[in-house]
Prior knowledge:
With about 240 residues, the protein is an alpha/beta fold. It has 2 domains: about 5-50, no CATH class; about 60-235, P-loop containing nucleotide triphosphate hydrolases (Rossmann fold, 3-Layer(aba) Sandwich). About 35% of the residues lie in helices and about 15% in strands. Helix 2 (about 25-35) packs across helix 3, helix 3 packs across helix 4 (about 75-90) and helix 6 runs parallel beside helix 7. It is globular, with a radius of gyration of 19 Å. About 40% of the residues are buried. The mean pLDDT is about 90.
Amino acid sequence: MKLSAPIYILKQQAKALSQRDKLRLHVALDQVAVREGFSAWSHLASVWQRDDTSRSVYEQLEPGDLVLVGSRPGQGKTLLSIGLAVEAMTRGKRAAFFTLEYTVAEVANRFEVLGRSLKEFKSSLIVDTSDDISAAHIAQRIAGEPPGTLVVVDYLQLLDQRRDKPSLDVQVRELKTLALKSLSTVVCLSQIARDYTPTSRPYPSLQDVRMPNPVDLSIFDKSCFIQDGKMQLHSAGTSAA
């Protein structure tokens, strides 16, 4: 959902409303948020923060990039990837979301969490939830899509479950080839091993990626790790702290 004005202007409007109508500031903030289509100011602020993070990450991605986004469950990697897709589409690009994890209705729900509607992107978004998802399937589905298309693969380890598909290492290489040939940006979500704990290191790293079978993770051009609402993005050749 696009705000009618920058968030600092909305805060100024809420302050003016508070003074004019003798309201507590938090009440005025909530009223402004409802006017913008949110349930409360806290909802608006959380969506705005996610949008800001997605925008920051998106601006560091390039056509041809193969990107890994990793976190433990519930840390926000799916919302970040959808935010990246939204950012691409609001800039006039196309996007594709391939998921072996969610139904279309669940994908729509994730868009709503971000204050957006799946329907508003109907003409610029592919949502594929089929059981046939693999690197080859993805390449076939985005054939003919224009350069700059952002492709999300949810998630990496699930590509490794079908015995009739190539190994995950082969598929990752195919996804990198696809990104280069199509000049798309391919974002792969990834699980993090259970033995990672933030008490040892504030963020996971490539060494924490859960790989049931060997995969050369150096193929990825960039990696992004999320923990406790914070994010670190690394280019190839760098590692998380």
